Amino acid sequence: MSAISLVALLGGTTVAVAQESDPAPKSCDGVRLTGELPVPEPGQAVSGRITIGADCKPEPASVQHGPASAASARSSGTATAATGHQLRGWNEMYDCCNIRMTGLYTTSSWETADGRIPTAGTTATQEWNREPWDAGWSLASQTAKDDCVTDCAAVNSEAHADFTYQGVFDPTGDWYANTHHSYVALAADGTASCRFDVELRHTFVGWNWQYGCE
Q1: Could you tell me which residue, 9 or 193, shows the higher pLDDT?
Q2: What tens digit of pLDDT does each residue of 146-156 get?
Q3: Least C-beta-crowded within 10 Å: which of 31, 93, 144, 189?
Q4: Within 13 A of 82's CA, how many CA atoms are on the CB side?
Q5: How far is residue 164's CA from residue 177's CA, in Å, rounded to a whole number?
Q6: Are the beta carbons of 55 and 28 closer than 8 angstroms?
Q7: How far apart, in whole angstroms, are the C-alpha atoms of residue 194 and residue 37?
Q8: 1-30 burial, b if ≥16 CB within 10 A, otherwise e?
Q9: How far apart are CA 99 and CA 46, in angstroms?
Q10: 44 or 164, greater pLDDT
């Protein structure tokens, strides 16, 4: 793949950029996928999905809106007290059998009062699929940071996770690797935005990337 593909659907944008080529028939070239989503209203969720098609190229993104999960319920305060907000994000790669291979998850909490953010923080967690014979995906590294946590005009949070694979589909451990990036911007008016990236050393037909926030 040598062209850049840009898709805009329902307020979300997705970019797929080819990174490398390899003629090996067992998988497709590596790609970098980027998705940006508008944060929905409280109680709602927005998500995107991109699948590696039969021609080894990422198919156009599908963006969906729907109710949020129970775990993402946001709290609210009174007009005279700080108002609490919460935002959950997910950034996941699934294989062609819809088994989750790797995932990066964030939960952001922040308060707003008098046009400022008194306190804020984002936590990041990672999950990955292991095979029964002590093989499969592994977490190689992870980082997370907030650029401000107290008395902030705005908060920008980011989390990163690198995963490697060694198992039945590649005993060498050199072929597959997934790197997830998640970015969250929190505003003093209670609004937010979320952006996601994933870099895949190689892919396979039917792999699909699922990302979203609520």
Answers
A1: 193
A2: 999 999 999 99
A3: 189
A4: 13
A5: 5
A6: no
A7: 6
A8: beeebebeeeebbbbbbbeeeeeeeebbbb
A9: 21
A10: 164
